Every structure is written in C-alpha cells, then in structure tokens.
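Structure ticket #2291
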Amino acid sequence: MATRREFLATGAAIAAAFSGTGAGSRAAEKEETDPRKGQKKTAETEGKRPPLRLHLVGCGYPPPSGSGDRTRHGSAFLLQVGREFLLVDCGPGTTYKMARMGIPTKNVNHVFLTHHHFDHNVDLPCFALVRWDLCDGTEPPLKVYGPPPTRKFVEQLLGEDGAFFPDWHSRISAPVSISIFKNRGGVPPRPAPAFETRDVGPGMVEETASWTVTAARVHHLEPTLESLAYRFDTDRGSIVFAGDCGDCPELRELAQDADTLVAPCVLVGNAKKYYDVIMATDEVREIAKATGVRRVVLAHNGGANSPEKRKPFIDAVSNVFSGEVLFPDELTTIDLLS
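Resolution: structure written out below.
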C-alpha cells in the first residue's frame, strides 16, 4: 500500500458559488458516453486489473444549473476501488443520480463528508434510508466520517430521537413492511438502520487492506464551520478531494505527489482578489504545479455546461500545469488508471 507518496471574470462568479448562478469548460474524454455502460462488467470478466475509477455524481453549486443531462447540482463523488465504492460528500440528488448511473446505494458502505454545507450533505438521510430500506438485514452498518458535528448531524436526523424516526420505526413495525422485508430475503425481526459515525480531524481517518484515508483541515469558512480535505491512497494510485477551500498550506501538504486532485474552480482568474475561501484557475494551477499531481479534475462549478464554456478554464490551468486537466459533466466516469 502506498504511503503519502507513500502516504505520509469576477467576484460575482464566486458569489454565485454560494448563492446561485454559475461560471464554467474540456470534460473527461468519456463525458459524452452513457455513464451506465460498462458498470456491470467486473475486473474478472474483463480480464483486467481491478478498477480505480472516479464517478462524478455532483459537480455543481448549491442551486441547480444547466438543463437535461448537463444539469449540475451540489457535490458528490464516488471513488471505486476494485468492488468498493467510497462516497465523498452527499449533496442534492445524490441518491437519484447514482441510480441514473446504475450504481446501487447498497454498494456504498463508507461516506466521507468534507463539511456541513447543504450542497455537500443534504441528501445523506435520503441515501442512508434508501440503502437501508433495500437491504435484507445482512449488510454492514453505514460508516459516516466528517468534521464535527457529523455525529450530531446523523443522530438528529436518523437516531431514535431524530427527524426520520417515524419513517424507519414504522417500517420495522408494520406488518406490510415486514412482509416486504421477508420477500427481499430478510429474516424478522427487521433491524433498525445501523450507523457507525465518527467526528474526524486531521491525520489518519481509516485504513483497510485496499485503501487508506488521511485528512487535513483546510481553509473555508472557519471558525463557524470546520472543513476537511481527504486523501485516498491505494496500491493503484492516490486521489485528493479538496472539498470547498481556498489555497492553503494544509491542502498543499496533503496533495503532495498525489496522482489526482479534485478541486473546486469557480472562475477563470484569481479567486483571492475577491475571497480566499474557494479556488479559481490561478489557485488550482499553482497548487497542481507545486504538489506534483499528475491530473486535475475541476468541479464545484455551476456554469460549465458546454465544451465552449470549459475551454477557458482548461486553457488557464494548462498554461502553467503540464499534467492532465479534466472538466467533466456530472454522471460521467473517469478511469484513474488510464
């Protein structure tokens, strides 16, 4: 397993990232393809090494923008490591968009929240309840990690005194719901939703045989809101999710020598002229160049709904950074081993 390498234009556009309208540019090469194609094949049936893929579920702002399959709304990313799916953020419509991509909720056992803005966490109760409602009782608890108050957030929504208690309590008690559970292969009594929730901070977050996660506290809207960036190291590569943040030493240290950096990019130019809590092309390219990452994926942008609108972003980053620059649509997938 790798350590760290071996582990360890205008202010209005930025304002739009928090209030509504967007700015926007080359998407991943597979952006025009049906994201559902290929999902049913496994590494074994393809005769290839296990996959390492990034599924772009949500790449936009708090409000929806665009139209049709080019709509962008909130933040959510699925990292596929072999047969495991790790969800980073769970913004608006995550559950529905995963269904459109052909990825079942029950495939996800780990959720990592970067911070508690609604465009990054509002779909968590929907995702968690759908995952539980489709289970037969043998699945592991859903593990949820994030900065404080993640434990309180989950408990107040999904705990025995939470907002959704009447929902799941009726489903484990009502005869018709128990019958549906039995038809799904479950053996009564039907268990309540199970969660393992942790407030996490900088440093090691989780380690398995296939992947390791470390976090760094990054600059966004502290002290009123704590924000984290996450780095996933696998034996096939490493990827950093910046979440929402400005350029800061902690992010640069976390991203050092990573293969891929997923970064917010709200406009062409310099975000620090207006705010230092989010990034634009100047910040992204300087971080990418300084850290030695191989690939940059631009996200958190509500207006990047056509190749023409993406091009200025791609060009601005590529003028300084010699690696690969991708600006994908939602509902698309990037092969991180290509």
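Closing remark: Residues 1-46 have pLDDT under 50 and may be disordered.
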